Predict the structure.
Amino acid sequence: DAGVTQSPTHLIKTRGQQVTLRCSPKSGHDTVSWYQQALGQGPQFIFQYYEEEERQRGNFPDRFSGHQFPNYSSELNVNALLLGDSALYLCASSLGLAGYYEQYFGPGTRLTVT
Amino acid sequence: GQNIDQPTEMTATEGAIVQINCTYQTSGFNGLFWYQQHAGEAPTFLSYNVLDGLEEKGRFSSFLSRSKGYSYLLLKELQMKDSASYLCAVRTGGSYIPTFGRGTSLIVHP
């Protein structure tokens, strides 16, 4: 049973560049949520995708955008990167919007912006 | 908005018991989660409480008091591998998206 997978594992980008992160949900899950986790902080919710639509969004600027594909996988895009975007980006999958009580997290993508 | 408070860091001895507290202020409470996160890794689900009381799962137990906006995670028979960050997260009925606290870094020493 494949768990949540994310790629790449690590990424180094320069200020102003754009980045795309990818996530495949756990087998059987159809909902993907993205979180940003700065060092020493808890994960902060970016947005959630279900049925290929953004369903909920946290307090993040429009530079952060996403997409969900018919196979439920998802991408997170960040434009015009800032130094403050350096963080661990976590993808979590669940079944349905309410996700019941278990979200399964992927290993994350460590983004460093220089 | 939601306000979730946890101690920043705790230390304990191998074999001992430790209690990690979490207090929250929120409206429309719809469940509280505890996650474990080892350094550089993804959070892993430990427990979910939506009703008052104690939920026991092996060496880990979680308690919730909705009237007090209070929860704790109890870890028994501590092992070195329990050294990790423990995240408290609260979900409200409107969004079903959990809001995470900053996490408590637990250090277990011999």
